[in-house]
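Chain A, query sequence.
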Amino acid sequence: MKISGRNKLAGEIIDIKQGDIVVQVTMKVGEHKLVSVITRESCDEMKLKVGDKVTALIKATEVMLIK
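Chain A, predicted structure.
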């Protein structure tokens, strides 16, 4: 599979909060946490669970930097 997105962050799922339609997945990336909201259907299809190693692919037209 080839993907055009270049901003990939590898980490581990540390929390999953399931709703009726969407799921909030929190992953640890190094010292930081990253939260993603995905559909429940996607979460079920991927069989995501705490402890899974995953990669977040970020595709955005704007990324702000703070110094």
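The radius of gyration is 13 Å. The beta strands are 7-18, 22-29, 32-39, 53-58.
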